[in-house]
Design brief:
Length: 253
């Protein structure tokens, strides 16, 4: 499948007159808990020639393609990515940490990741992750039954919020380091669930372990309360503008 994805990226690059700077896996495969029927969630960052940006008109800043049973692929213009980083959006933060890379221009990921450190807004990141977890919590039925996919859509964001609150840094994308925040007994339970998910359809319904459910509820409240008193932050544009101009100059043909 990797060969197919790389070929698709090359076709997209040529057809749209862009340079793909970075492409990665962003879904459950990148998070370290895929199911046998998980599709491939490929995300990429691209830049266009200089003249594209020299216009009085707003231009498209993303590329989307039809989703099939195996492949979900789309990309964002570097300008869009930098705008989101200014807002401390978690999506670019996660893409840049993906363990599965399909394309990468030399030093691009390292340089952009370093830039991200100056735009981490603790409160915003916590609330974002809690929002995702809350949405998945609402899919629980009969008090303790949930699709196994949705359980991990609670666990990973909740632990990401906890990481942001306790460590004050951008949360890891993968679940392994996030699990270190949990008591050892619960770590074992979640690891067993990861093994189960690896052999089960994403729609497989399970009963949530009572101790795990109590932990989820407690941490949701703790993170929510902890975020309330965090200070507001704002970020300037200078570093982002410099990175934007340098990137365009480097890859303008």
């Amino acid at each position: 499948m990797k060969t197919t994805i790389i070929k698709k990226l090359e076709e997209i690059e040529k057809a749209n007159d862009i340079t793909i700077l970075f492409a990665c896996e962003s879904g459950s495969r990148g998070w370290e808990f895929p199911s046998p029927d998980s599709d491939y969630d490929v995300r990429f960052i691209y830049v266009r020639p200089l003249n594209y940006y020299l216009s009085v008109l707003d231009k498209d800043d993303q590329l989307r393609f039809p989703i099939n049973e195996e492949l979900d692929i789309y990309g964002w213009d570097i300008r869009k990515v930098l705008k989101l980083i200014r807002k401390s959006n978690t999506t670019p933060f996660e893409w840049l940490q993906s363990p599965i890379i399909y394309r990468e221009k030399e030093k691009f990921r390292d340089d952009l990741w370093q830039l991200c450190q100056s735009y981490f807004y603790q409160k915003n990141n916590i609330n974002h992750y809690l929002g995702i977890a809350h949405g998945a919590l609402e899919t629980i039925i009969n008090d303790d039954e949930i699709k196994i996919k949705k359980l991990f859509y609670i666990l990973r964001p909740l632990l990401s919020a906890k990481w942001c609150l306790e460590k004050g840094t951008i949360a890891p994308m993968t679940i392994s380091p996030l699990l270190t925040l949990m008591p050892e007994k619960l770590q074992t339970i979640v690891k067993d669930l990861i093994d189960l998910k690896s052999t089960s359809a994403e729609g497989f319904i399970i009963k949530i372990n009572a101790e795990l459910k109590t932990y989820i509820n407690e941490q949701f409240e703790l993170c929510g309360n902890g975020a309330k008193d965090l200070p507001k932050e704002s970020f300037d544009l200078e570093k982002l503008d410099i990175f934007f101009r340098n990137t365009i100059s480097r890859y303008d043909n």
